Input
Amino acid sequence: MPSQGKLYVVGIGPGMEDMLTLRALRALEQSEYVLGHRTYTQRIRHLTRAQIIESGMGQEVNRVKRACELATNSIVSLVSGGDPSIYGMASLVVEYIHKRNIDVCYEVIPGITALCAASPLLGCAISGDHVVISLSDHLTPWEVIEKRLKCALHGDFVVVIYNPSSRQRGDNLLKALEIVLSERGDAPIGVVKNAMREGERVCISSASELFESPELVDMHTLLVVGSSETRIDDGVMITPRGYARKYIYR
Ligand code: SAH
Output
């Protein structure tokens, strides 16, 4: 008999409740179980009557296994911060289900990722082509990260940096800033901590300034490295989309 349950992988956005999509809200309301890291389950627990099952960092595979078991007969939401496809739980769920050929019906519900929350807080830092890179070498070797960062800088993309710092990887940030300084010079860098949630802090810095003050950056921060076209105007970070080349503003 086919599975009677359903597994939703729910992107809950950056944190503020009104940054959650209606589809995510409906999934949470329908669910009998909600699984996730405590940071995320805490944010949405008042929106659901489901039984909450929390687990910590490093428990991702077990969490997915448990969610799949429960989703054989029940409606289950597995919550992921921001968007589940951007350094979130989606790939693990999809890989696990397909590799093991498990009979579970699933749906990934997108969420507002950190970069979409951070960009308008800076002005319009990301207006066109950009590259997204994580400095976490937990699942990706550092040499690969370094190569991708160099290529992105060569391509003159705006470079959005996730996971810029953590207690275990403090020097990855300094190594990345060194690469920025050598490839792009003292580029402007938007620093957004806790975008669109409690503790929000926004500042516009530069590669050399952050190199001197890396304590401005922590694991709740996103960095936006400007391209050669990025300008700071009245404290606002602007990467022009190109309209001024084509039209005269009146
Ligand atoms: N899936 C998440 C990203 C998870 S990776 C998303 O789509 O947003 C975790 C990293 O994302 C953090 O180290 C930080 O760099 C960034 N991040 C997540 N939420 C953030 C927020 N509200 N403000 C700033 N950075 C955030």
Q: What stands out?
A: Residues 115-238 form a domain with the Methyltransferase, Cobalt-precorrin-4 Transmethylase; Domain 2 fold (CATH 3.30.950.10). Residues 14-15, 80-83, 86-88, 113-114, 117-118, 162-164, 192-197, 219-222 surround S-adenosyl-L-homocysteine (CB under 6 Å). The chain has two domains: 6-112, 115-238.
